[in-house]
Each structure stands twice: as C-alpha cells, then as structure tokens.
Amino acid sequence: MGPTRLRYTMIGFIIGVFLVYMKELPVAEGTRFAAPFYGAGIGLLIDGIILRLKQQRGKE
Hints:
Blueprint: H1 3-21, H2 29-59
Helix pairs in contact: 1-2
C-alpha cells in the first residue's frame, strides 16, 4: 500500500472515529459505529480518483 493510499485511508478513518463520539447526530447507532470503516473506504475511493486523474494527465 502506497503512502498516499494509507494517508487518505487514515484520514477517513479518523473522521469516522469523530463521528462515533458525536452523540447529537441523528444517525442510527449501528451506522455511527461503522462510520470509521465507511470513512476508510471513502478515503480509498478518493485516492483512486486522484491517482486516475494523475495518470490521465501523464498520458496527454
């Protein structure tokens, strides 16, 4: 796993952890406790999009 993949994954995970501790959010408890994993997945998706854009610019 490259450094950027790990970076975006951990940023998403940390944001998800913050969502777990925000009790005032009108979100179901199961969704709130799964938020760190959702955040990590979203971080991987964002990294994939950024890498794809960089590769396309390199081909032009």
